[in-house]
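Proteins fold reproducibly. Consider a sample protein:
=====
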Amino acid sequence: MKTSKTIFQSAFIVMLLLIGHTVATAQTTMEEFMMKWENGKKLTLAVVEAMPDDLQNYKPHETAMSFNEQVTHLSSAIVGIGGGFLMGEDSGIDLEKKPSTKAELKALVEACYDYGKATFSKLTEAQLAEKIDIFGYTASRRQVLGLIDDHCTHHRGAAISYIRANGIEPPRFTAL
């Protein structure tokens, strides 16, 4: 558990630094971001649907996260970071409960993405611009939004590679 927390924090810091530069040069409106967010939710659900039930615990290496763990992790991080750094309310989602079926995993994805949408959409422009301390760094809440989105994309991409490794065609990416 401590090792996965350290890995998450390290990955988070690297992504935060990369996002800082990207967000400074490429702003989108909240409406545009929310459209992208909904697209990410749909794609994540399609990725979960594509992986057969009997391969939910597949992992390419003993030290890697399983398919289920990749998707659970990206979903849980939406709630954890959203609640911890983006002024999100209590989600009511038990992040300690790990889904054991495809249906449970899809329900978790739905609930976490919906929580993110509700949390993000309440942020004002002033709150988005506000600088906060996050994992030893200073970033705007807008940067944290980008981080969450990039984090989801990263782990969804890993999950897609697991689908391909099993000879299954993953869902097509759609940008809008």
The chain has a mean pLDDT of 90. The domain at 2-165 is CATH 1.20.120.450 (Four Helix Bundle (Hemerythrin (Met), subunit A)).
